[in-house]
Design brief:
about 280 residues, mainly beta, Glucose Permease (Domain IIA), 2 domains, nine-stranded antiparallel β-sheet, five-stranded antiparallel β-sheet
Length: about 280
């Protein structure tokens, strides 16, 4: 489950758990309070972290370290009201991501002008979605792998399509036979279930507290926007829609807007080994 450190400050204990404190990683903070509090606010990287009560005096907060975060020390603050607070630093280490070169349909590298409005609208839809925060946690079970196959591409890899550099790979790819059933990584509400230009048939699940799963390139979607799903529920099938080189599932996770490796989520909030 990664390294474990303990910091005691002002009668508040903060345990820090992570595979590594690097860009693209999930960090789990467990906060032990001297007495009950109805609310705890945790901030890191200039945003509120997803925080929820574990029991009467313990809270847990999920902090995502985005791919663009630079190495260095970043302040984490915990406020529990009535003067009860604590601070600590997360020291983010450097991580060098590899480059991958792919050949795809040229229309997905330089889309025709007729598609500009569509692409802009879809980017805005996703950007708005990642900033939303449902105030309650919609899951309770461990996160699960949506397909049985292992991931093939490293999260954060810098992508070069048809010889032209593009953005970092913000998810994990799971090569799977077309038609393989895809399961919900955890419970939540379907907020997007539609065909998007770059990611094809795409399902986005809001797990609550600012945590989202995107499952992309599906051949079929078995859910609709507004549906509630349970962990491991069937949501669609593997396909090759959108910008792809072959059938696979692209699974991306956002934690309060930060791009986080899904394998990090499985390691810390699921039942999977913590290795990369």
């Amino acid at each position: 489950m990664g390294s474990l450190a303990l910091i005691a400050l002002a009668a508040v204990q903060i345990s820090v758990q992570a595979r590594a404190v690097e860009p693209g990683e999930l960090v789990v903070l467990t906060i032990a309070l001297p007495e009950h509090r109805d609310a705890v606010r945790v901030r890191a990287f200039d945003r509120d972290a997803a925080a929820f009560a574990v029991d009467d005096r313990r809270w847990r907060a999920l902090v995502g370290i985005d791919l663009d975060v630079k190495p260095g020390a970043y302040l984490v603050t915990v406020e529990a009201g009535a003067g009860l607070m604590a601070t600590t630093d997360l020291v983010v280490a450097r991580h060098r991501f590899p480059t991958r070169r792919l050949t795809v349909d040229e229309g997905f590298v330089n889309p025709p002008p007729t598609l500009t409005d569509r692409i802009t609208q879809e980017a805005a839809l996703l950007g708005t979605t990642w900033q939303q925060v449902t105030p309650e946690r919609l899951w309770s079970a461990p996160f699960v792998r949506p397909v049985p196959q292992p991931a093939s591409s490293q999260f954060g890899t810098r992508s070069v399509f048809n010889g032209r550099p593009r953005g970092a790979h913000g998810g994990a790819d799971f090569p799977s036979p077309a038609g393989t059933p895809i399961r919900a990584p955890n419970a939540g509400r379907v907020v997007i279930a539609r065909d998007l230009y770059f990611t094809g048939n795409t399902v986005v699940i809001d797990h609550g507290l600012g945590i989202f799963s995107m499952l992309a390139h599906l051949s079929a979607m078995d859910v609709r926007e507004g549906d509630r799903v349970e962990a491991d529920a069937a949501i669609g099938r593997v396909g090759a829609t959108g910008r792809v080189t072959g059938p696979h599932l692209h699974w991306a996770v956002r934690v309060n807007g930060a791009r986080v490796d899904p394998l990090s989520v499985l390691a810390l909030l699921g039942n999977e080994p913590s290795g990369r």
